[in-house]
Amino acid sequence: MATYAVPEVATPPPVAANEALLVANGDLRQSANEICWAAQAGLEVMLTEAFRAEGVTLKRAHPYNEKLKHGFIHGQRMGMAVFEHIHPDAPLVVAEAVWQYSSHLLAGLQSHRGPILTVANWSGQWPGLVGMLNLNGCLRKAGVKFSTLWSKDFKDDFARHGLRQWIHEKTITHDASHVRAFDAGNVGKAERELGVALARQLRAKKALLGVFDEGCMGMFNAIVEDALMNPAGIYKERLSQSALYAAMREVGEEEARRVKMWLDAKGMKFATGSSEETDLTDAQILDQCRMYIAALRIADEFGCDAIGIQYQQGLKDISPASDLVEGLLNNVDRPPVNSKDRKELYAGEPLPHFNEVDECAGIDALATNRVWTAMGFDPATTLHDVRWGEHYKGPSGTGEPIDEFVWLFQISGAAPASHFVGGYAGAVSERQPPMYFRLGGGTLKGLSKPGEVVWSRVFVEDGRLNVDMGRATALSLPDAETQRRWKEVTPQWPILHARLHGVTQNQFMARHPANHVNVAYAPSAEAADRALAAKAAMFHEMGLKVYLCGVS
Hints:
Layout: E1 19-23, H1 30-53, E2 57-60, H2 76-83, E3 92-96, H3 103-111, E4 116-121, H4 128-142, E5 147-151, H5 157-169, E6 179-181, H6 189-204, E7 207-212, H7 226-229, E8 234-239, H8 241-249, H9 253-265, E9 269-270, H10 282-302, E10 306-309, H11 323-329, H12 359-375, E11 381-395, E12 401-410, E13 428-429, E14 451-461, E15 464-474, H13 479-488, E16 495-500, H14 505-511, E17 516-522, H15 525-542, E18 545-549
Parallel strand pairs: 1-2, 1-3, 3-4, 4-5, 7-8, 7-10, 9-13, 15-18
Antiparallel strand pairs: 6-18, 11-12, 11-17, 12-16, 14-15, 14-17, 15-16
Helix pairs in contact: 2-3, 6-15, 8-10, 9-10, 10-11, 12-15
């Protein structure tokens, strides 16, 4: 009889009654994990006390690392190793006070059988909300059942009730009464016909998304499988960040300076200094101008309709940040760039860029560009992080009273200048924080102007493309309140004060399937309603399952 080395698979011990396990997922970058650890430790103290008040002991499933000075899971292999020692039926809490790479946890969470609760601190300074929303979106795409909760201190009634329900019922019920399925029959004839025609045109004349390396920062939810987008007429051109860097090196200093001079002439400001380690420098800016030119030339070479640059992993180690590039590309009015044979590239139009190669945002930006252009509106669009928000009671920037929850949306570097108060003249480029961006590079920062907005998020769930859509108003707040809020988040990045129509803070948090939300302005409330209708009709005809949030 043959003898084989048959492995024995050990089963971790079950947790005791009235116990739950906690995992803390972090960044891939040591600098971010070390700096942010204090916030995570504070969150875990609050959670431990909240569970104790309900008669449950919350225990860490992995230790603090004295050498690294943090207790985060900081890689996919480490996440797999941690889950080898977690009983698959254990109640599991994923606590997030910071940005995290969802890929570190996916392997373990996909095979976990017990109840899962994702929780985040309600803070502007520490982006746990952003990290948790990304993880939630990844779990929804992967078909993993979970519950979710958020709070400043987990002492409020909302958090206590949710925690109690999860402990006893293994789930949390949130209010989703603001969501309804789109009915094309309720859309005006002109908007329906426009949306349908644009979708059919897209299937006939297909579009290319230029993807400069897929899968930024562990965002599994931001990857759209080809088979899901191809039937709508959208295809990927897989490009390389190394090719982008090589193309940058072919751009001469004179060409790069012309881009910078164009921005100077528009009144844009650059907050520069002399230290490459801590300041934005002229050399960094010129390299970003080279990247802008190179990106347009590569996009033209491959015939791309939109592009996304990953930047974070790989390019960050050899080049300044791509943010200034991204903000410029999304604007109609931007520095002209010629091909090597002197043809102006994408003249008079944006080249939509989807930040962090979020392909869901790329599909959205493509649709926005076509609908807004057909309607004669400014097609500049961007995504923002759902960063934070607070109730505000007081005058608006123009004196009208406000007494409601106001979101702060913030993209991690750049938005199109036409979204800002003052356009380019109201914009400033500041150095990206060294914690994330060792080689610097400037942002395209501004305060988003008051106006009417359509928001949306394309996402993958149940093996298909879906989209949530709604309306918002970008608000003007007094300068003191704006500056206070800016200091609560990342002051180098652009912000938008948003009032969501018909959607409460908790409804939005419970439902939103990502850390990102796409926004585009319309000239008036009536025009925004029509644009929303046409875009919804286009998505519907493209085969997406369309949900309207807070609007009829």
